[in-house]
Design a protein that fits this description.
It is a single chain. The chain is of the alpha/beta class. Helix content is 48%, strand content 15%. Helix 7 links the parallel strand 5 and strand 6. Helix 1 packs across helix 8 and helix 6 packs across helix 9. The protein is globular and about 40 Å long. The C terminus is likely disordered.
Amino acid sequence: PSKVGSPVRVAYIGSVFPSAQLESLIDCCNAIQALDEEGFPIRMEIYSPSHATEQYRERLVVGSAIALQDTILDDEVFFRTLQAVDILVLPVNFDAHTINFIRYSMPTKVPAYLTVGTPILVYGPAEVAQVAYATKAGWGMPVTVRELNVLKLAFKRLATDTQLRQDLSVSARQTAAERHDARELPNNLRLRH
């Protein structure tokens, strides 16, 4: 995970809901597109059920650095993709409704993300369970303020700081081994959201 491609590949795999992660995912797209236009080669791939996500295409695909594709149904391809990219994104909206709605819930994709050891950028309010978990266990790089420049710097750092990438990868795999039973993963993945 310490070797990064050029362009840097960032991926989000999962559902996109207005009451969960849409706005924060759009922020990520804007940050990636801005970095790419500033001469830092980076791309964002979004894999999500097209029947639900297509309506947000104009807001997500803000330029040539963003690609919106259908969800990955095959477990082997899913894991290969998680491993092939340089950064995974776990976004959560910052609005009060979202915070109340998903404060204590954990996306089913978290164990899969952790198992592969690809560095994870966790973007959302500090009080939401998945952000708090990433911060406390050290398996993700948390960005807990909604500020485009902070987000851009975080993506850049995660792409260029080899030691940080290594540390996050080790923490993620350790957390997966200690807290998430790998034998449960293939069944859990069918619920990817």
